[in-house]
Each structure stands twice: as C-alpha cells, then as structure tokens.
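Deliverable D5.2: sample structural annotation.
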Amino acid sequence: MPSRWLALIAALAWPWYASADQVRVAVAANFSAPAKALATLLEQSTEHTALLSFGATGMLYAQIKHGAPFDVLLAADAERPARLEAEGEAAPGTRLTYAIGQLALWSARPGLVDDQGEVLKGGGFDKLAIANPKTAPYGAAAMQTLERLGLRAALQPKLVTGESIGQTYHFIATGNAELGFIALSQVEPGRGSLWVVPEHLHAPIRQDAVTLKRARDNPAAKAWMALLRSPRGQDLIRSHGFMTK
C-alpha cells in the first residue's frame, strides 16, 4: 500500500486513539457486580476503560491518603468522599450520591432467616457475621440495627467480623457463619433465606462517589461519573438491588 495511504489511515485513526483513556476506580466491595457491569457499559459506549479495585471503604480511603493512584472513589458511605473533599484531595464539585444501599440479614440455608428477622431474637445459631463497623458502612448499619432491636449485648459473643462486606459474604456463603448482615445487592436471587432490614433501624446507607484531584481533567473519569448519573446507569444500579435518589 502506498505510504501516503498509510499516512492518511493513521491520521484518520489518531482521534479515536487519542480519545480513549483509562480511569482507575476504587470501589466499595458491596458494589462489585454493578461496577463491573458499568465498566463494560463505559467501554461499549465511550471506548474509555475502567480499571477497578475493590475493598472496604475505610481501607480504600486510607490507601488514597497514602498515595494510591486512584482517579475516582465509589464509597459505601457519604463520609469518606466528603472528607476527601474537605481535605483537598478531591476535585471540587464532583461529589455525588450514586446509590442508596439496602441492608439484608442473609443465610445460605433456606428457611433459617424469616421475613421479619425474628431469628435474631431466638438466638438459635452460633455465629452472626458482620463487616467491620469501623471501616465498612454496612457493618456500622448492622450494629445500629442490633442496638435498635435491643439485641447488641446479647448477640455480641456470637459476632464474627469480616474486614469487608465481601469477606462477610464469604463467611456466610461457606457456612462459617450461619447468617449475617450483608448488602442486599450481594444476595443471589432464590439462594438461602433473607430479611431486608427496614430503613428505620439504621442510618441511611448513602453511597457517594467523588473524583480525586489528580483526575480532574481525565476524560475517562468524567465519562465514568456521567455514566453514574445517567438514566441508563441508574437503571443498571437499581437492577442490582440498590435504590437511587
């Protein structure tokens, strides 16, 4: 092929390659499945790519404070994104609520958890799993629920603590704990038994996202945040067991 044609093809292709960027997203463990689906949607609709890292919100926040090269934080709470904004680590005006989580008491065993959560009062189990309430917002919500039910002291000896909501799910799924508090979004439809915890038993689990200062001009970060706000993105988030504003 003549060199002038090769040059023309390269010139035409250049804008496409120049527009394709990558966003590094730190994702709360409870949002793993929808984040993966959103990453696929981002690539299909914009050709930007998202590199996802999962963990407890408190752990991700600490990593960011120690210089981890993330571009966006998808937290399981509103506190850490607001803190990053106040500390000058976030790009101003980028914080938004992308989802509202629902807490569920779940067991891999069918019939163990009733639809009113009365199993907690009966105490016919050895281990109750929760995520670390100091680092995982769903763990904090679980402790608030036990407190408001008047069961915290009675069930304290049975508690098994996971470092993240993902590890907590693993404890229950493998039978190392008969039941536990996880995000509703983690529950596979039709598997085991569950109680969706009423919202009045704990503070709202508002999950906020924020763009970090280092990525304020990153086109892929902007596209990711726009996708979270879009009707298509919000529909996808709701389909995974979350509520939206």
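Annotation notes: The longest helix spans residues 3-19. The longest strand covers residues 22-28.
The annotation will be released with the project's public dataset once the embargo ends.
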